[in-house]
Amino acid sequence: MKTLSCQDVSGLACPFVAKGETEEEVIQQLMDHAKTAHPEESAKMMEGKSEEEMKEMMKSKVKEEEVAGDMGGGDTGEAAGGDMGGDTGAAV
Ligand SMILES: [Zn+2]
């Protein structure tokens, strides 16, 4: 998963972190966030820069984040075997 922190890009003390599968996705999220949450600051940052330049700058701030919950989720389901129940029933 990719993450992009508003603080890394804007330098503001903002807790917003965009999360997505691709760089494009998180960049788009952060741009939308910046326009709504910090319209003045984002206007200043964009001043004299093209949208492409902004995207290149943000790209360098995108981080790769490992999601621990994604791994081993399928294995746990298989471990629950119903085969042993039959033996217990015959003993009673
Ligand atoms: Zn922000």
Question: What can you see in these coordinates?
Answer:
This protein is mainly alpha-helical and 92 residues long. The chain has six helices and three strands. It has helices spanning 6-10, 23-37, 39-46, 51-59, 73-79, 85-91; strands spanning 2-5, 17-20, 63-64. The protein has a three-stranded antiparallel sheet with strand order 2-1-3. The mean pLDDT is 85. The chain binds zinc ion. Zinc ion binds at residues 6, 10, 12, 14, 16, 33, 37-38.
- The structure class reads mainly alpha
Query: What is the mean predicted local confidence, pLDDT?
Result: 85
Q: Given the structure, what is the number of helices?
A: 6
Rg measurement, Å: 23 Å
Order of helices and strands: EHEHHHEHH
List keywords for this structure.
3 strands, elongated, mainly alpha, 92 residues, 3-stranded antiparallel sheet, binds zinc ion, 11% strand
Give the helix/strand layout.
Layout: E1 2-5, H1 6-10, E2 17-20, H2 23-37, H3 39-46, H4 51-59, E3 63-64, H5 73-79, H6 85-91
Antiparallel strand pairs: 1-2, 1-3
Bound molecules: zinc ion (ZN).
Zinc ion is lined by residues 6, 10, 12, 14, 16, 33, 37-38.
